[in-house]
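ENTRY TYPE: paired fold submission
RECORD: A
CONTENT: sequence, then structure tokens
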Amino acid sequence: MAKTNMRHGVVIGTGAAINVELGWVPNSVELFNVTDNDIITQAFLDWVIPFSGGGTTEIVAGMDIKGATTNATARIKQVIASATTWSAGTAAGVLIIDADSLVGTFGAENIYVTSDVSTGIDDATVTANVVHNIASGASTLAAAVTTSAISRYEGAAASASKGFTIGSVLSESGKVLRFRAFRDDS
């Protein structure tokens, strides 16, 4: 049975990025500017990595992968394939990464399953880690990026604090910002 963590709270915008520490990195966050009621931002913070050119080793949940160039590593939480011809080397789709297992950042590179007998086998080609943010205003809906987005906060090296970061554009000085953060520990 999956356990779902949910936290809600209030922060005051500072005009600079704000790290909201929860003790865990959420799968998704909703942020509301309640002072102006002018923008709602939703962020889906699970790492999603698009892949193509799957090799002959079928990548499945629970496997560990490694980047051939960056040496980034992660455990696969889910594979969503739009084409599933692994034996022909043409599989494509997205890899959902277990967020707590990610070490480093995948770039546009080949990856391999670390349990392969011969490491370095090209099991798939990936692009960079992706998180998805959506900002909606009174009459608009658009992708939110960089300082207008919410991102993962992995915590400082000397601390176990984890949570999310509110970008500086969203952190309007003196504005009341309410948030809801969710994590599904399945």
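RECORD: B
CONTENT: sequence, then structure tokens
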Amino acid sequence: MYCSHCGTKNQEDDRFCVKCGKPLTESGAVENKAVIHSVDKPGQKKRSWSFIGLLILILLVAASVFAIYKIWQPLFETIRGDTKSTPSTLPESFVWSQFEEMALLDSVGYSQVISPDGNSLAYQLGNYQIALWDTSSKQVSRVLEGHTDVIISMRFSPDGRSLASSAYDWSVILWDLQDGSIIHKWDIGDLCGVHFLDGGETLVTDCFETRSLYYWDTKSGEKKLDYFGWLTKSANIEFSPLDNALLQYGFATTYVNIYDRDYVNELGTASFDLSAEVVSAAFLPDGMNYVAAFFDGKVGIWNINSDDPIWQK
């Protein structure tokens, strides 16, 4: 039996403990399990609680590090220059697959333009043809044939039923998109940009070499107006969305000129100090104001009836 005082094992017939000398009676003796329980169990509990505490501490530290990283991640990416655009930042109508498929169609020329309703995209095919690509079906819906050289400029009419194009063959063609036929073809003998006015009833061609504007009746094909040799050299032309004015700026010019839509009366001039060339200019959607940017980094907004900017930076 075991001594209840020191836990020493004794013989069955011993009356006193051989180690501590205490009497071994039935009340003073205990079973082996009881001794082990009273001596070893407290140590085991202490070791178990220490392991659980260490595990909890490790989990808390890991969670804290992860939380700090997620909070400061945008700052880290900005510092490293890792900021990237994701599809979620694109307009909802943007579909990557459409543009991937278009890239496989054929060699695209210099000019591409999308219809006002967004349902068609016009671009040049390899042999100076114009392809109409349906953005819904993602297929070429029609091919227009008539030019004999590289396409320079294209523009849909406001109702989307016709398309005007110009090319290095020095011609301008007005196409009927219902059947792909040619409505009118003008052999102008110059390189031109194309613009629609009056809801598509007038087509304006601005010509590079002759620095001229021609106004054409899209129904009869007859010339309405022409201003020969008036444009600034290498002029860039844009008409107001309201068809009430046009702007022009040219190569190495330091100002933007504003005229009425028929190029008769000058309405205003946009410039700062005439020391920097114009980089670009465009009308705002309201049709009454326009923005111009200059090579020295200055940008301003002007009203079509004033030479003083209403905003500048």
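NOTES ON RECORD B: The first strand starts at residue 2 and ends at 3. Residues 62 and 68 are 10 Å apart (CA to CA).
STATUS: closed
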